[in-house]
Design goal:
It is built from five helices and five strands. The protein is α/β, with parallel strands linked by helices and 143 residues long.
């Protein structure tokens, strides 16, 4: 398996994903703001070459990281407590945070103190109905 062709920083809010794409040299070659729903993210990610996608752990990171992997990309989950560049940034914007995540993912994964979700169980995926007999709260608790 070869390495990534691009590096994507993905900053997730409640309604949108802010994305920054870097090439192998570290130049910004794209930015996007995508609704945080499975169909929209799938469409955007499917257009990307093999990528390392870096996300911070958060309420949507479980289902987004599974989607990233399902589409053939590498998903790296950054520990927000360890990523001080983002937590203490004076320029705290979604666009800037996405670029920092991409740059850290390109430079050295150890800087991200990568973590993994405990469970691959149910999760609430915007744009997709919950499994029959489950509630949104039960789905969130299973992560």
């Amino acid at each position: 398996m070869t390495g990534p062709n691009v590096f994507v920083g993905c900053d997730l809010s409640d309604k949108k994903a802010f994305l920054c794409v870097l090439d192998l040299r570290g130049a910004v070659i794209g930015r996007a703001e995508v609704r945080l729903r499975e169909p929209e993210l799938t469409a955007w990610l499917a257009q990307q070459p093999r990528a390392r996608v870096v996300l911070e752990i958060g309420s949507h990171s479980a289902w987004v990281s599974r989607l990233v992997k399902r589409l053939g990309h590498e998903a790296v989950l950054a520990n927000p407590r360890q990523v001080q560049l983002i937590a203490r940034s004076q320029r705290k914007t979604d666009k800037h945070d996405a670029e920092l995540l991409a740059r850290l993912g390109r430079a050295d994964l150890e800087l991200l103190a990568p973590v993994q979700h405990r469970s691959e169980g149910l999760s609430e995926v915007p744009g997709r109905e919950a499994a029959p007999g489950t509630s949104s709260a039960a789905a969130r608790e299973s992560e």
